[in-house]
């Protein structure tokens, strides 16, 4: 599986707005990873789909000169699950844009209902050639629009020789925590994630300068939170429950996580009620 979460771009108005589609299928390898008997798309990856559409909007707006990297997000809301057979309608909007960054928002809908909402994310612009092969990016962009014919593609390949097709498969593993170092039920948990050159998403994020996607950093915190809450509740009640993330606020990404880095993750449980935790 590839770390690609936009299947098609339906609309794109440079500097303003874009709509796209992500189909969810049983062939997507991440579906049963966290919830074995209830296959869903991990909620962190619905954010990734929105972020990738925002990325395409910025790429087209800057005429393929820049790619956005997430810096902060004001708020993310998870309002529903996405299951096999669902089609997500992705929406991306540039609220304001400057030479070096932009303020963006977006959402994902299934059957007319919002399942994920991203508000006021600030992204910094990086020269695209520092992250990816520009010819591969252009070829992928060409394939995302439904009105392109096969002859159009052949003509494009003829005028852009030497490009390599982006359609190939990798295995995909959503394990975002390698080890739990400490756990104190009801209070805190400490874990570690080592980032290696062999990570499944490395070929897409980004081939020239691999960095850990911000959504995968969020996923690491989600998985560590699940471990703390599951252990805490099992100790208190003996029950085994399913943990579902509901949202986040004021996330900041302060620097890149590169191959060879090791993240030490800490989650603190500040409030636990009957059906919700903070």
Structural features, described:
The protein has four helices and ten strands. It has a seven-stranded antiparallel sheet with strand order 1-2-4-5-6-3-9, with helices on one face. It has a three-stranded antiparallel sheet with strand order 7-8-10, covered by helices on one side. The protein is globular. Helix 1 runs antiparallel to helix 4. The longest helix has 24 residues, at 214-237. Helices cover 23% and strands 32% of the residues. A hairpin with a 3-residue loop joins strand 4 (87-97) and strand 5 (101-110). It is an alpha+beta fold.
Largest sheet: 7 strands, antiparallel
Counted beta strands:
10
Which geometry do the CA atoms define? globular
Helicity level, as a percent range? 10-25%
Average pLDDT works out at 85
The number of distinct helices, counting runs of at least 4 residues, comes to: 4
Radius of gyration over C-alpha positions, nearest whole angstrom: 19 Å
By secondary-structure content and strand pairing, the structural class works out as alpha+beta
> How far apart are the termini?
33 Å
User: Can you list the strand order of the major beta sheet?
Assistant: 1-2-4-5-6-3-9
Unreliable parts: 165-171
β-sheet strand percentage: 25-35%
One letter per element, helices H and strands E, the order comes to EEHEEEEHHEEHEE
List descriptors.
278 residues, alpha+beta, 7-stranded antiparallel sheet, 3-stranded antiparallel sheet, 4 helices, 32% strand
């Amino acid at each position: 599986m590839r770390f690609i979460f936009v299947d098609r771009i339906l609309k794109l108005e440079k500097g303003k707005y874009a709509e796209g589609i992500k189909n969810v299928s049983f062939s997507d390898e991440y579906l049963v990873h966290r919830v074995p008997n209830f296959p869903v798309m991990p909620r962190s990856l619905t954010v990734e789909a929105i972020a990738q559409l925002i990325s395409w909007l910025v790429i087209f707006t800057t005429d393929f000169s820049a790619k956005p990297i997430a810096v902060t997000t004001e708020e993310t809301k998870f309002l529903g699950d996405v299951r096999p057979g669902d089609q997500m309608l992705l929406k991306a909007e540039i609220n304001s844009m400057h030479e070096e960054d932009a303020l963006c928002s977006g959402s994902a809908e299934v059957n007319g209902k919002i399942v994920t909402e991203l508000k006021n994310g600030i992204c910094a612009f990086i020269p695209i050639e520092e992250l990816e092969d520009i010819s591969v990016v252009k070829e992928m962009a060409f394939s995302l629009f439904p009105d392109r014919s096969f002859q159009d593609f052949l003509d494009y390949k003829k005028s852009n020789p030497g490009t390599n097709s982006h359609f190939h498969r990798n295995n995909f593993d959503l394990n975002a925590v390698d080890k739990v170092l400490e756990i104190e039920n009801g209070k805190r948990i400490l874990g570690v994630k080592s980032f290696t050159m062999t990570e499944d998403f490395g070929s897409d994020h980004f081939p020239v300068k691999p960095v850990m996607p911000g959504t995968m950093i969020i996923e690491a915190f989600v998985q560590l939170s699940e471990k703390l809450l599951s252990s805490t509740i099992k100790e208190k009640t003996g029950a085994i429950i399913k943990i579902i993330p509901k949202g986040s606020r004021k996330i900041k990404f302060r620097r890149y996580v590169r191959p060879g880095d090791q993240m030490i993750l800490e989650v603190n449980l500040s409030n636990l009620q009957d059906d919700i935790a903070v």
